[in-house]
Amino acid sequence: MRDLRDEIKKPKKVKAKDPIRQLLDDTDYDNVVLYNTQGKPIEFEQVARIELDDYEEIFVILIPVTKVPDVEEGEGVVYCLDAEQGSLDVVEDQDVIDKVLEAYIKLISDDDKGNK
User: What is the mean pLDDT of residues 4-12?
Assistant: First the structure.
């Protein structure tokens, strides 16, 4: 009798990407995996990286791929990315969120004009 355990292919472990580096990489459009406070991974689609003149931080808009409490389906979440500190925090200040969304709308509007 042959032992098949050695012949069964084990799934390769995928090395998790550093989300900060991934979000700063202009060529990496893959989904980003973040971890909630319970350590559960949550996958997000990258929508935009926004830099505002009045702020040192970089802002990113991410859409959860799976259902996340308090986030409607298709709704984006604005995060503040501090590359020096290596932190990524949800933005709760509505004024900042509004500025990020205005910049995003301008960005996609400018892209649309450039594609015509």
Answer: 50
